[in-house]
Design brief:
Layout: H1 3-43, E1 46-47, E2 65-66, E3 72-75, E4 79-82, E5 120-123, E6 133-135, E7 141-144, H2 150-157, E8 171-176, H3 207-220, E9 224-227, H4 240-254, E10 260-267, E11 270-271, E12 274-282, E13 285-288, E14 290-295, H5 306-323, E15 331-334, E16 346-353, H6 358-383
Helix pairs in contact: 3-6, 5-6
């Protein structure tokens, strides 16, 4: 191409661009209101409070960011998409237990004033090493305190739960408390109260409140729940398990749809240096670390199907730890009964310790409820 032809070509292109500018400007003016509306929507975005970050990934439903308009939603990792607000699970917002005052605290109320005593030791338990511990395939660990080899238990941990879920609206989960009066610290502080034995009949400050948090999350997910609030350990602590069994058996007989029976407790971790507060930060809030206990039968405990409970324990442990990294301590697999012969989904769950605060354990209850709901809903989907 000659220099003259190149100059002619540049001139033609320049004329074309000049001619196109007015049309482009007009199109831009037409789009300006839509762009402004979109910008306004983006500016109005808010992140739902109380959302947690799952291990290695976001839980998309709980990490959804909603526009104030209510019907225009951006989901983490998926860009813009049209969706109605009703398609997202409603967030469960519970009253702060530290601000809740019971109208009927019972014979042993929660302290109104506090003394200064043993130090509160804040700690976060990580992964354990040692011959009794082994890692589960996805995440989480098991503390094997039995004579069964770890290799055999690891193989058992890979088996699915031994019950099916066909209708989550029917009563599917039973929550109860053998040690109903177990209680907690009022708030994060340097020292506990040596005059308080960390037991109260006030349901807003004892382990029943944790059961309420689990129940609220399960019901929000459409899971049928029965929550027994009967006190089994007051005024007498001895015989608690016999009394809780008397409460649970009639409920199971009347509701054959129940597959999971969870005895919700709190641990008691303390030593010469003070009482321990095991916690993990989940979703910007402190949660008490939790431990599942799955009993093993040595031939004398009357639990021939104990391994079926262990299958469910491993499934729940991995669900919890994958949803909320750092929340769990290893599953304790030991020669213990704890009424775990009643169903093939019977477990004991220790939610924190007496050194944890009432707000920490309530948040843990919500996290347990969310993960259990996901696990059970997934089992229902796999059987349909």
């Amino acid at each position: 191409m000659t220099r003259y032809k190149r100059r002619r070509l540049r001139a033609v292109l320049g004329c074309c661009i000049t001619a196109a500018l007015p049309a482009a400007a007009a199109a831009a003016m037409k789009l300006l209101p839509a762009a402004a509306d979109a910008a306004g929507r983006i500016g109005a975005l808010r992140l739902d409070k109380g959302q947690g970050t799952a291990a290695e990934s976001y839980c998309v439903e709980r990490a959804a960011v909603k526009a104030s308009a209510g019907d225009f939603i951006v989901s983490e990792g998926f860009g813009w998409r049209e969706e109605t607000a009703s398609q997202l699970p409603e967030e469960v917002v519970l009253p702060d237990p530290s601000e809740t005052v019971s109208s009927s605290p019972g014979e042993k109320p929660y302290p109104a004033a506090w003394s200064t005593g043993s130090p509160v030791i804040r700690t976060t338990y990580g992964e354990y090493a040692g011959d009794s511990f082994f890692d589960l395939d996805r995440c989480g660990q098991v503390n094997n305190r039995t004579d069964i080899p770890n290799e055999e238990l690891l193989a058992e941990s890979r088996l699915p739960a031994d019950f099916t879920v066909t209708d989550t609206a029917e009563p599917l989960v039973l929550l109860y408390h053998t040690h109903t009066t177990e209680s907690f610290e009022p708030f994060v502080r340097d020292n506990g109260d040596d005059t308080f034995n960390y037991r109260t009949t006030d349901e807003t400050k004892n382990i029943v409140m944790v059961g309420d948090a689990i129940q609220a999350e399960l019901e929000a997910a459409g899971i049928g729940v029965i929550h027994l609030r009967t006190i089994h350990d007051y005024p007498s602590y001895n015989g608690s398990y016999a009394r809780s069994r008397e409460s649970v058996v009639p409920v199971l007989e009347a509701n054959p749809s129940i597959k999971v029976a969870l005895d919700i407790h709190r641990d008691a971790i303390s030593g010469e240096n003070g009482l321990t507060q095991p916690f993990a930060e989940i979703g910007g809030r402190e949660a008490a670390q939790v431990m599942i206990i799955s009993g093993c039968d040595d031939g004398t405990l009357g639990m021939p199907e104990y391994m079926k409970n262990f299958h469910f324990a491993c499934a729940l442990q991995q669900q919890l730890e994958s949803d909320w990294k750092g929340l769990t301590r290893p599953v304790l697999f030991d020669y213990r009964h704890y009424n775990q012969d009643l169903t093939t989904g019977s477990l004991l769950i220790e939610v924190g310790s007496h050194g944890n605060t009432i707000s920490q354990v309530q948040w843990s209850g919500q996290l347990i409820g969310r993960s259990l709901a996901s696990l059970l809903s997934g089992m229902k989907e796999s059987t349909t």
